[in-house]
From TrEMBL:
One of its GO terms (biological process) is establishment of competence for transformation. Interacts directly with the sensor histidine kinase ComP and stimulates its activity. InterPro entries: Competence_ComX_Bacillus (IPR009233). This is ComX pheromone. Keywords: Competence, Lipoprotein, Pheromone, Prenylation, Secreted. It holds the Pfam family ComX. One of its GO terms (cellular component) is extracellular region.
């Protein structure tokens, strides 16, 4: 499930912004998992995000 969430967030950068702003809740994800996901998406630029995605595949 966590992998699918990361894939969805990678494909929808607007959702990442909402998650960072606290406007999006991830049902079934703990606070520590949410923090880890946000850490992955802290880097700017689509190229860097794709490199971060390698970890999740």
């Amino acid at each position: 499930m966590l992998q699918r969430i990361v894939e969805t967030l990678t494909q929808n950068p607007g959702m990442v912004q909402k998650l960072q702003a606290g406007e999006l809740n991830l049902v079934g994800i703990s606070e520590s998992e949410k923090t880890a996901i946000l850490d992955v998406f802290q880097t700017e630029g689509q190229k860097e995000r794709k490199q971060g995605m390698v970890y999740w595949k």
